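Worked example

This section walks through a single chain of length 219. The input is the sequence exactly as stored; nothing has been trimmed or padded.
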Amino acid sequence: MKALEKTLDVLDFLMERGIAGVTEISNELNLNKNNVFRILVTLEEHKLVEKEEETEKYKLSTGCVVLGYGFIHKHPLTKLSIPILKNLRFKLGETINLAMLDDKQQFVIYIASEETIKPVKVKPRIGRRYGINSPVSSAKAIKKALRGEAGFVFDHEYDDKNGVSGGACVIRDYKGRPIAAVEVLAPLYRMPLSKIESDIKPLLEEAALDISLTLGYWD
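Given that input, the structure is written out below as tokens.
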């Protein structure tokens, strides 16, 4: 079991860092260099990591994409949410995201997206992970729900620096637990704060309720 934990730690480190060498991984994770090397060789054999010949550093490989794709498209939350996400994108004309809370309630992971067809788009978030304390709207809404706020909790983001605005509502499972959020993102000029409150919030609340009901939620 300890060997498996070390392997998962290495994968998690590479996911966060992007690319790293044996010595760097060893120092950061406080693992023996020989152990790190053996772990990386095994992961490379299973196409989960690959080594750059120029730098001899390691990064995640295509096998991780395959695993992630399989998880995303077979998870009940994704399968049940997609029609509702598509409908919301049709109503709003903007990018709609689905972010899921991890089991340890430390991160939100973006697992599905329906992109706007408008020529100016925001940077995609699908496949990305954000800490529960991050300023993205999905994390903010879920954090408020975890602290005890009832209902389909809403929160927003308004990022002048990156020119992005958005809002999100919490999705609850059949026990009423906050497990995910449905989110809309757009350039600032298309979605000012006044529009988020008046036009976006009610539609997000409706979508969050619809998804929750498909998951068996009953108040």
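What to look for: The chain has a mean pLDDT of 88.
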